[in-house]
Specification:
Elements (H helix, E strand, L loop, with lengths): L7 H20 L4 H9 L16 H19 L5 H12 L3 H45 L4 H6 L12 H7 L4 H8 L7 H15 L3 H49 L4 H7 L1 H37 L1
Length: 305
């Protein structure tokens, strides 16, 4: 199946409409800007903190627009697939790249969500290590365990942490609250803190030394994982470079006047080569990712043993 019968005007109109819809969806924040504008241009009102002077309004609007654009880019970066698909569709006079861009949006969103989740897990693991060191330092300074945990104030440990200071402040079951908070992603180290707390309360062992050992074990595990990621970075870079090579080849062919997009999108042989190449590209990326995951699992398992 080819797209030879599709006119360039239809492709142009379709691309323009999709780009406009994506831009409107990325920049729209209904309700909040209306309330902000009403507050800004209300004129009268109660006495209090006044807004900026009229000659400073352009600067405030530019700054607010920059913040909105930055927030929209951080939240909806996957929509960049649509302009890229539209550009390739206009260059190749075919709707197939546009459809590929539309299909790539949920895949890129899922990939970005996985990366964001990984960063959040790493941040929470670092917060658990910092919590152990802070509480251990407060205990050695003479504070009581409940007071030290209640004053820790680690909101970056997720919503499950809210019950831990409350249990420590009002005499609740602190180990149970720590185990509940440790069930989230990246906070598994709190289970070790709960075990140290239980041993210290029941057997009279030193809680500060136990927390320092937990922090040292978590830091060692994190360093081992970072060292493994550094060793596997070369494999990932090679896979990405091999995945980008076909795109570079298309750019070089276009620069030399060979019109590779016309051949790939408007001839049966080119469309077959495009489908086969995309399938092989996907299989290579999946295979490389599986190799990297297996290597990371085996190394991690050996380190834990």
């Amino acid at each position: 199946m080819t797209a030879a019968g599709v006119s360039p005007q239809a492709v142009s109109w379709c691309a323009a409409l999709i780009c406009a819809a994506a831009a409107a969806a990325a920049l729209s924040r209904p309700g909040r800007e209306v309330r902000r504008a009403r507050l800004l241009f209300a004129g009268g009102g109660t006495a209090g903190v006044q807004g900026p002077a009229p000659w400073l309004w352009p600067r405030v609007w530019l700054r607010e627009g920059e913040k909105r654009l930055r927030r929209a880019w951080q939240e909806r970066r996957e929509w960049v697939c649509l302009p890229l698909g539209c550009l390739v569709a206009l260059l190749g006079h075919s709707v197939l790249p546009l459809l590929a861009g539309v299909l790539a949006v949920p895949l890129v969103r899922r990939w970005l969500a996985a990366r964001a989740g990984q960063r959040e897990r790493e941040a929470r693991e670092a917060a658990v290590i910092d919590l152990c060191g802070t509480v251990a330092g407060d205990l050695r300074a003479g504070k009581q365990p409940g007071e030290a945990v209640a004053e820790a104030g680690r909101e970056d440990l997720g919503p499950g942490w809210a019950g831990v200071p409350a249990a420590a402040r009002f005499g609740g079951d602190v180990p149970a609250a720590l185990r509940k908070a440790g069930s989230g992603p990246g906070t598994q180290g709190l289970n070790g803190v709960a075990a140290c707390w239980r041993v210290a309360v029941d057997g009279g062992a030193g809680l500060a030394s136990g927390l320092e050992r937990v922090a040292a074990a978590l830091a060692a595990e994190r360093d081992q994982r970072e060292d493994l990621q550094a060793q596997l970075a070369g494999t990932r870079s090679t896979a990405v470079m091999l995945a980008v090579l076909p795109v570079l080849a298309l750019l070089m062919g276009t620069a030399l006047g060979a019109a590779p997009l016309r051949v790939l999108l408007h001839t049966p042989a080119g469309f077959g080569c495009l489908a086969l190449g995309g399938l092989l590209e996907w299989a290579g990326l999946v295979w490389t990712g599986r190799i990297v995951r297996c290597a990371a699992g085996e190394s991690g398992g050996g380190g834990r043993a």
